[in-house]
Structures are given as C-alpha cells and as structure tokens.
C-alpha cells in the first residue's frame, strides 16, 4: 500500500522528484535531538522557511493529549521565533487524516514541525495516508520539515523506540517512519539520556541502515544528500562500513561539521575539507 501511494504521488509531482538517494530531492529537513531551550535552531528553521510570513503547520500528535488546537502551548516558541502564520493540525483518526479539509493547511504550508512525544503515535495517525503524501509534497515544492525528539525519529525510514510498551525497546511493534531520510534510523537525546550505545544492536541486525544519534540542543540540517550539524552538542554516526582506529562503532560530529549521506563521508568544519583520519573504511569487527 505504501509503495502504491508513493507511486501515485510521484505521478502527480513528476517522477524526477523521487530520485533522491538518501535525503530529499528538494526542500530541507531540520532534525533536532530535543530540549530546544535556546532559539538558534528555530531561528534557522524560520530562515529556511522563508521568514515570518511563511505558513507553518505544527503537528503535535506524538504527544499524549487528545486535543491540540490553536491554544496548544507549543505555539508560543514559534511565535517568539517570528512565525506569524501558524496552524496546529492534529488527529488520531486516519479517516480524518485522509480528508480534504485536514490536509488543506499542509497544501499551503512552507514549513511543518513535529514536536516530541512518542513517534509511534505519528505513525499510527498518518503513515500511508494523504497527510503523509502532502508532507512529502511540502519538500517537493522546496519547503522545510522539522521536528524534535519523536519528531526527529519519525523522519527516518526505520523507526527506533517505536514500541507502544515503552521507549527503551529499540526494535518494537512500530518500525516504519515517514522516510524523508531513506535507509536511516534516527535517535535523539543522545548523551543527555546515555543513549550513545543504543543504536549499535539496531545496525548489527540491519547492517544496511545508517544510524544517526542527535543530542539535545543540537540538530542536523539536511539538503539533498548532505547535512550540517548545528547547535551546542554532538551528532553520532553509526555506519557498519566504517570503524574507528580502536574498533569503535560510532563517532561524533560537532557544530559546523558536514556529512555526505550518499558516500557516508564526514568532514570537519575547517577549510581543508579533509575526511576524518581516525575513521577506517572497514566493516564492524563482528562482520569479519
């Protein structure tokens, strides 16, 4: 069903829009690790969206509440950042998520943001619906989709911590995300919650996946098949094709560093654009 729906969307927007390797063919992703107490990530989000007049849709469905409307408290941060045209969109009814009325705000949006909570709630409500198709269309017309915590993880193709029982189960009863980043699993609150080893068993079981762990007050800004790290802390890369000199299975990027999602090559923020010397193009030891 999912492949059929995406195929229909490709016919509508043009087949070339779906030719991306990992990241979006057009548009931008802002994938944040949580705890956005400072404004710099939302300031960057506003800039990418096109400024204060850009229509923004906030979808807080990952939260526990049954009702989110224009009085949703999370709107205040986006108003403070400068957004003037803000719509809060929420349902747990998949029939509603497939309706013309519900998707209309997304059709005019230049920016969409997913706050935190539990990512499986977003999957239950919107996966394989018209809402999901319209989210892909936001990117196709050059818009920006962002999210923090659960709103970060849902942007990958493989949904970790998606079990309905608790968020410590890495491979649970929900494993499919929206796939704005293909063949990618995204974790969040990385160092703040001591999660920096948690993606290793996921990549061991699914070695073709790229794991990306993002700490709090930090984000990656994805354009096409590359991203830049922004924020105060670090991003971890879990790539079974590469190990550190001491056989470590992940390595860290900091603000200003860039990463090529297609070649899986990281580069420091200096002028030389040299790759990381300590990262070897060798499979993880358990594969030998």
**Helix content range:** 10-25%
CATH class group: Alpha Beta
Task: Report the portion of residues in β strands.
Answer: 15-25%
Largest beta-sheet details: 9 strands, mixed
Please, what is the average pLDDT?
91
Number of strands: 16
Head-to-tail CA distance between termini: 38 Å
Strand order of the largest sheet: 3-2-4-5-1-9-10-14-15
Secondary-structure class: alpha/beta
- CA-based gyration radius: 18 Å
Shape: globular
Individual helix count: 9
What is the CATH architecture annotation? 3-Layer(aba) Sandwich
Structural commentary:
The protein has 288 residues and is an alpha/beta fold. The chain has a single domain (2-287), classed as Rossmann fold, CATH 3.40.50. It contains nine helices and 16 strands. The strands form three sheets. The protein has a nine-stranded mixed beta sheet.
Features:
25% helix, 5-stranded mixed sheet, Rossmann fold, globular, 9-stranded mixed sheet, alpha/beta, 288 residues
How would you summarize what this structure contains?
With 288 residues, the chain is α/β, with parallel strands linked by helices. Helices cover 25% and strands 23% of the residues.
SSE map:
Blueprint lengths: L1 H12 L14 E5 L7 H10 L6 E3 L16 H7 L4 E3 L5 H4 L2 H9 L2 E4 L4 H8 L3 H11 L3 E5 L1 H4 L2 E3 L22 E8 L11 H6 L4 E5 L3 E6 L2 E6 L2 E5 L4 E2 L6 E4 L3 E3 L4 E3 L11 E2 L8
Parallel strand pairs: 1-5, 2-3, 2-4, 4-5, 6-7, 7-8
Antiparallel strand pairs: 1-9, 8-11, 9-10, 10-14, 11-13, 12-16, 14-15
């Amino acid at each position: 069903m999912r492949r059929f729906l995406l195929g229909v969307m490709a016919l509508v927007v043009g087949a070339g829009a779906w030719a991306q390797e990992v990241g979006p063919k057009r548009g931008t992703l802002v994938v944040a690790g949580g705890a956005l107490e400072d404004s710099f990530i939302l300031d960057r989000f506003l800039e990418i969206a096109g400024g204060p007049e850009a229509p923004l849709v906030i979808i807080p469905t990952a939260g526990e509440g049954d009702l989110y409307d224009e009085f949703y408290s999370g709107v205040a941060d986006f108003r403070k950042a400068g957004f003037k045209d803000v719509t809060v969109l929420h349902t747990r009814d998949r029939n509603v998520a497939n309706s013309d009325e519900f998707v209309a705000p997304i059709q005019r949006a230049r920016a969409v943001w997913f706050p935190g909570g539990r990512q499986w709630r977003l999957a239950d409500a919107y996966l394989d619906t018209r809402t999901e198709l319209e989210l892909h269309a936001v990117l196709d017309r050059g818009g920006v989709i962002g999210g923090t915590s659960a709103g970060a993880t849902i942007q990958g193709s493989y949904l970790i911590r998606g079990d309905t029982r608790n968020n410590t189960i890495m491979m649970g009863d929900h494993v499919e995300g929206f796939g704005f980043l293909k063949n990618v699993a995204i974790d969040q609150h990385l160092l703040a919650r001591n999660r920096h080893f948690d993606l290793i068993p996921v990549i061991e079981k699914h070695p073709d996946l790229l794991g990306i762990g993002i700490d709090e007050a930090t984000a990656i800004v994805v354009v096409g098949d590359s991203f830049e790290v922004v924020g105060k802390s670090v991003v971890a890369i879990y790539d079974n094709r590469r190990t550190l000199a001491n056989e470590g299975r992940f390595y860290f990027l900091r603000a200003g560093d860039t990463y090529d999602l297609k070649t899986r090559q990281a580069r420091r923020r200096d002028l030389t654009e040299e790759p990381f010397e300590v990262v070897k193009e060798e499979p993880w030891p358990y594969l030998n």
